Amino acid sequence: MASAPSGGGRQPRPRRGPRSRRPRRAGRSRSPGLPPRYAARRAATALHRRFWATLPARLRLLRTVTLLLTVALALLLGLAGLAATGTWDTVAGRDAPRTTSAADLNLALNDMDAQAANLLLAGGDGGKGRLATPYDKAVGFYGDARRAIGHDLRALAVAAQGDAADEHTVESLTDDFAEYQELIGRALENDDRAGGRPAALVDYREATDLLQARLLPSARKLVDSNNSAFDRQYDQARSVLAAELAAVLVLGALLLAALGVLQWYLARRFRRILNPGVLAAGVCTLLAVLLGGQALSASADRLHGARRDAFDSVVALSRARAIAYDANADESRYLLDPERREQYAQSFLAKSQQLYGMKGASLDSYDFGLATTWKEYRADHHTLDFGGEFARELANLTFPGERAAAERTVDAYAVYQRDDRRIRALVAQGKEGEAVAFCMGWEPGTSNAHFGAWMTALDQVTDINRRHFTAAVRAGRFEATGLLPWTCGLLLGAGALILLGLRPRLAEFR
Fold this sequence. Notes:
Layout: H1 36-51, H2 55-122, H3 132-159, H4 164-191, H5 197-270, H6 276-336, H7 341-355, H8 363-379, H9 388-394, H10 402-428, H11 432-440, H12 447-507
Helix pairs in contact: 2-3, 2-5, 2-6, 2-12, 4-5, 5-6, 6-7, 6-9, 6-12, 8-10, 10-11, 10-12
């Protein structure tokens, strides 16, 4: 018989074998992370709890939205101001000076050749029989034109850097001008010798042919190239201003809407009618949007006024002045070179048509046609039965005093045209000496005196447009640098007022 174990305690429990594990459900992941849809749901729940579930969270969210919109609008207006300032700097410092330099070069080339013809015409035979006053004036004008050409070529060479086509044009102009000066210098030197007129005439023909064939076309090409570049800059700047204005209005509307929602929410939750800080921020925002929109809209209008109303007329009138000098030179060439008289007569007519064009006009009928069409225009300003640079200017009259000045210019032009017919009539009568004296004289009633009166009238119209171009640039710069910074200040103030207006409400939950 077995004896009971000593100690009277319980028997030790037998060791349990290894627990059998329950089989995993199919498709259940052992990875520590949650499935993507549960993670996204948890993240959305956390975001909702953080930004929307409680009243302070909703206030902080609205505060963040309004501040972000305020900063975005302030940045947009600040960048718009910088862009507008850059546009005006480009217009006034690069585009307009380049175009006017090219136009001045075109004018100076015509003037130099005209004065060379006048020197030969007034010089006599080796100085004998020289017309003193016309000759001395021609010497002065010739030197002025040559210096102007040198200055304009240097300015255009700098402006053309980076533009291969313009660089090549300026280089060709410089080379051709050197050749032209050599020919004119030789012509003047030959003319100073007794009996040297035939040789001088040969050199002058070669020089003026070079001018007409290469120098003037290249100069006009530069005018067109720089004017087209100005047009592209203008179109781009106007598009940018329009886009900026639209963006300011959209952002401003969003910010005002956000401030309205914030004001409504505060009134609803805190049972107050208005929050002074948010209300003041809304007023600042409204002022900033109105002021910024007005500044951008005014900048676009100023740009249009500077380019289309003023500078288009400056270009047309500069072309007219260059054509006028070339036409005046044709009169001197007509008297100087009998073998080419018909050629120079037709050249004068062609240039007259460029200034005041009429279909089918000839030298014999031009005066009558001019008088008739001009009388019709003076009776009805909507009747423009002529073309050319004068018609282009008369179709773009914008500024006070411009119409009267333009009409005085055409009146002076008509007097000069009648002088041309008198010169040709004197030549036809065999009175070449009288024709030369009338053509070259500066006394009142002579052709040069009337030409000077015409140029004075033309300069007055040009000056009106130049002054308004300068005024438009000045006003545009003021709107960019004087008004737009205030809008940024107003928006910064609006941001500060939003923070101050919400601070007491958020402090209630701490």
